[in-house]
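Suppose you are handed a protein chain with no further information: no name, no annotation, nothing but its sequence. What can you learn? This example shows the usual starting point.
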Amino acid sequence: MLIVKKILKSPVSVPLMALILISLVIGSTTDVFWQADNMRNIVLQVGIVSIMSVGATFVILTGGIDLSPGSAMCLLTMILASTVKLQGLPTLIGVIIVLIIGILLGLFNGVVTAYLRIPAFITTLAENCPNRSKNVTQTNKPLLNIGKLRNSRYYSRFSYSS
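A reasonable first move is to predict its three-dimensional structure. Written in structure tokens, the prediction is:
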């Protein structure tokens, strides 16, 4: 009984119970949720976010903020895909290239923040622009397709007419 009370008082207990409840609801309403392929897919997707969240935790614990991981991950994913698929390099070489570029991006942010005394918020926000623009030029697709938005039935509800 003492162990149960200790677990229920833990700060992890509420999110864990919510996760179990959501899993049970989704599992009971769909046929494929508990299948091995879906579980493997979930584990793979959670793994990427978990690795990034560990780094973000260290940044937050030290009193900083880093706005660039999302755009950096997107940029590094595009570089990996282009080196492996388009350039025909082996996957291991592509991963090594991406790791080196990722280290250089982080090193740049760290040097600018530590030695030039520019706040991390500004430095990492400024890094988003080149990362995102490279993604747009690499894929030849805009981040937001305004043409589709204007043609949607919801656009007229929220737009201002002059």
